Amino acid sequence: MRSEQTMLDLILDTARGDDRIRAAIMNGSRTNPNAPRDPFQDFDIVYLVTDVAPFRHNLAWIGRFGELMILQMPDEMGNPPPLHEHRFCYLMQFTDGNRIDLSVVEAAVLPELPRDSLSVLLLDKDGIVPPFPPPHEGDYLPEPPTMKAFADCCNEFWWVCPYVAKGLWRGELTYARHMLDEAVRAELMQMLGWHVGAQTGFSRSPGKLGKYLQRYLAPELWDLLRATYTDAEHTWDALFAMGELFRSAARGVADHFGFDYPPGNDERVTAHLRHVQSLPRDAQEIY
Question: Which of 86, 103, 150, 179 could form a disulfide with 145 if both were Cys (CB 3.0 to 4.6 A apart)?
Fold first, then answer.
């Protein structure tokens, strides 16, 4: 596997040697001082260029970066594909394990590009890129909830739990797992983000899809979160673990901000879930 320095040299030498490339920026986890370092980290690179057209669909041009395992060009996907006149993206996974996510963007649209707090300027031939501050997680930190956002999250969590129970009683495993792993988990992860924020003064990120949650959750809460990731035969257990974890995190967030946690919804829905779990499969009525 090529080293990080070898890859960075390749990325920079390519930019320096091509007059069409005027600047290079790196963002993502490799610029994050709080991200753990490992060989799976991508190289998230933006090349600012004079014109995107010569780079678009140019598979010969990207051959310099290494032997590809698989390539994705998201701007070519979809029917019809999205129209992005001023940029083109190559997602390149190489056979040696390295990966480069390379966006080629016309320099003329630089003022329209959002500034990413996890960015480092690698090269600027013309002085066209305003200086970046030292990279930080500011754009990725959870924001404190409003009272309404907290109430909505609690309501949605307990509202969608019965969908899982209904699917399990019917034997509709794919439906039940989708509702559990998408709808219910989305609200759980939102609440856990607020929980981490309350514990850290909203100065730390739980990471994309909660990948850093183990750093910030108490061991008993982490064990509960792990218990939500079960095989198909233990979906009921996962659902009840989600409820217990959500309840604990939400009560803590409510205490921290002076919000009201809705115990009635929690108690009534949890009792309903237990009832449906024990309901005979040939039942003609729920109650």
Answer: 150
